[in-house]
Amino acid sequence: MNGRSVTAFAPASVANVGLGFDFMGFALSGAGDRVTVSLNGSTGDTTIIMSGEYGSLIPVEPAKNTASVAAIAFLKAKGYEGKGLKIELEKNLPLGSGMGSSASSSAAALFALNELLGNPSTTGELIPFAMEGERIACGTAHADNVAPSLLGGFVIIRSYDPLDIVRIKCPDELYCAVIHPHIQVRTADARRILKREIPLGDVTKQCANVAVFITGILREDYDLIGRSMDDLLAEPKRIQLIPGFDNAKKAAIGTGAIGCGISGSGPSIFALCRGEALSFKVAEAMKGSLMDSGLESDIFISSLNAQGAYLI
Amino acid sequence: MNGRSVTAFAPASVANVGLGFDFMGFALSGAGDRVTVSLNGSTGDTTIIMSGEYGSLIPVEPAKNTASVAAIAFLKAKGYEGKGLKIELEKNLPLGSGMGSSASSSAAALFALNELLGNPSTTGELIPFAMEGERIACGTAHADNVAPSLLGGFVIIRSYDPLDIVRIKCPDELYCAVIHPHIQVRTADARRILKREIPLGDVTKQCANVAVFITGILREDYDLIGRSMDDLLAEPKRIQLIPGFDNAKKAAIGTGAIGCGISGSGPSIFALCRGEALSFKVAEAMKGSLMDSGLESDIFISSLNAQGAYLI
Known about the structure:
The structure is a homodimer.
Chain A: E1 5-15, E2 24-39, E3 47-51, H1 66-78, E4 85-90, H2 101-116, H3 127-138, H4 146-151, E5 154-160, E6 163-168, E7 174-181, H5 187-192, E8 197-199, H6 200-219, H7 222-228, H8 235-238, H9 245-254, E9 259-262, E10 269-274, H10 276-292, E11 297-303, E12 310-311
Parallel strand pairs in A: 3-4
Antiparallel strand pairs in A: 1-2, 1-12, 2-4, 2-5, 5-6, 7-10, 7-11, 9-10
Helix pairs in contact in A: 1-2, 1-3, 2-3, 6-7, 9-10
């Protein structure tokens, strides 16, 4: 395999999905990072070459870069440590956007590296290594971005010990409009402001909404999906970090979105919509609303059944 | 309608279903209370006549009996207050059993009364009146017993304000074994011992398990149902009220049950099983285990898609 290189793409993702704090997420299509990997010797240090719109903002020290941290953990587990790993990372996703930017880099690196080594692991088995990248990026080895970024589609992280991930099929007509306001929210900050203890009554309400949300997804019942999208854990605290969130949400619902919430730890905002055409209208309405608050933003549109990582 | 009488049956139910504290429940077939109602005059007081195995344990004062409290609330709403209501309640379900005994009485009374009045309400519209019976019985107007007892099947109470109840279809092969140990647990006691605040990490785990449980139910995936049946809210506290619960649960799982938990606020214990034959074996194993602790118990077996209230 020396000298050969493999390139993979892994998409951005929406973690939490509003009411699924820390255990739900889905992949987005289109936006994502691209990584080329090669092993250039029987021994040797890791080299990282950055490119792409946000490449200059990412550390090139192997111990601080999510792609290399994940890749090195994988190489070590497979007995290929110190083989002159070279990572070329085209960083297309903005940092601190709430769109799974760090996860996209590590997922792409692992997907490419697995192929380079002759696929010793299934895609699902790459998730724990990608989680090591998340630990570097935000202090918590969470899977709600890396799992959808690798596997695609909509995932539920049922348990971390043992790791138990369930992938569910979403209605084909279900689309997501994401807007990314041009501000940055550090995941660590977004976690620190959460309440550590939740009143029992709120827990019951949250669980009941989760039960109905999943029922809506699996029965393709858009009304149930909409009625249940009410997060009592993260959104009430995190909106303070996203100026204009309330108005953007009102604009989304007013334009016909089924539901709307914070993507990951923000500042990106997602809205679920029935049909691709409506999702563009909803995204424009949210963008216009943020513009009224003086905030520029970018738009991303995707099915909820989007593909995960793939080779290029 | 004077002089005419109508009789209805409403089944017992399993509330909470382990991990669905205060928002999930399903009806049981076979066991339940039977109520005959009549209106005997243009004016007149309410009369209650009790019968059945547990009839002597129920108050006959109209303000303290769940069936009459629910019925009077309904009559008042429909403009038939003080018309000489007569309730004959055959009380077949033990009190404080965790099998929705009080709900069964009020559901049967309302179902019969609605028929007597020419069905001014849908069955779903009877739920708020049945909840008034629960308020008398245990201090909280909850719906996780009355809704399945009236509607049948498996229900999710998404919200109380507005009341929003979602009924879901369960796998046809899914059966429930319930054993009722001959001890009594007061719902008020079972509620008082719960933690009022839940750590955020536990909330995430509970929500994730709920999401996977519902996925398992709707996809008919028994493995997912089993993996997800792990309650962090009620069971860890309430097992202290049910001697022998741990061993009964081990016996159930060891005999092949998919999952096992406390029915309602206990002391009844339920186990989900694939197939009716296995559910009998599981029930016998649980009964034997409790017997080892010196505790007698009764067995109830039911599909999860059991019928709700019906006329006789």
